[in-house]
Amino acid sequence: MIPVPWDTGSYFFWLLLVSAFVLTLERLRPWRPRQRLWRRQFGQDLVWLFFNGHFAGILVARAGASLFASASPAIESLQELQLLASSPVALQFVVFFVLRDLMEWGIHNLLHRVTWLWEFHKLHHSIEELDWIGNFRFHWMEIVVYRGLTYLPLAVLGVDGRIVLWIAVVTTLIGHLNHSNLNITWGPLRYVLNSPRMHVWHHDKQWPADRPTGVNFGISLSLWDWIAGTAWWPAPSDAPTQQPGQLGFEGMERFPRGLLGRLLYPLPLRRRPPALGPRSRV
């Protein structure tokens, strides 16, 4: 389970390369020049980067493989369909990238709307200073939820393993950029691609009154938010700096700040007042 950094066929190698690339861009052209590299809780975020970027993913993958190995013949027959197995790799990439992103947009939406899912998602919204490494500050349960709900389409489509790796690399790059300290909008492409200027509003501590469960749920693509009416990008006249006044969520002062407390949250190890957040609609 110990990662080998120079193995170009592993996701961990590309995670380190992408991280170094985006970090360099941040240091060359920071959007918020006063934000320090070693900001508060940066050391903890390094742990999340390694834990979620390698170890937690392997553990969940092994658990999932064991689960599906003992699955019913119905699931096994779906795996045999292999709808895209004989298709060109470019088509496989596009189809799976778009399908996966749409599903993850829906899952992200649920993380904000379903009370017990929001409890896990609070960790990601505990970010107070946004930069590239915040992309990997999330609860291990989110890996279970995301992979659990996207594995079946992957099995049915029969996507080439190389495509799965490259989609993981590309989505990691986009995710790092979206959380980065970079002033990127993508111009006219902002209606298709997510960006730091758009995603920063997802981390706003105070969302618009008519959208109490959140805005801008897109992972790689912003397209779904514009279609569903969940996009939020205030005009310069309404937000001159084009950044929220404060990041986080209501009641964050009662959320654990230590690594162990966040790793185990929300297990009822002790009685605690609830940390507030989006009002559930489920």
Query: Unreliable stretches, pLDDT < 50, 5 or more residues?
Result: none
Helical content, roughly? 40-55%
Q: Would you tell me the overall average pLDDT?
A: 85
SSE run: HHHHHHHHHH
Domain unit count: 1
* Total DSSP E strands: 0
Number of helices: 10
Shape: globular
Indicate the proportion of strand residues.
under 5%
The main pleated sheet reads as: none
* Structure classification: mainly alpha
Cα-atom Rg, whole angstroms?
Answer: 19 Å
End-to-end Cα distance: 39 Å
Task: Give a quick set of tags describing it.
single chain, 282 residues, mainly alpha, 0% strand
Give the secondary structure arrangement, pairings included.
Layout: H1 11-28, H2 42-69, H3 73-79, H4 89-113, H5 115-121, H6 140-157, H7 161-179, H8 196-199, H9 223-228, H10 259-264
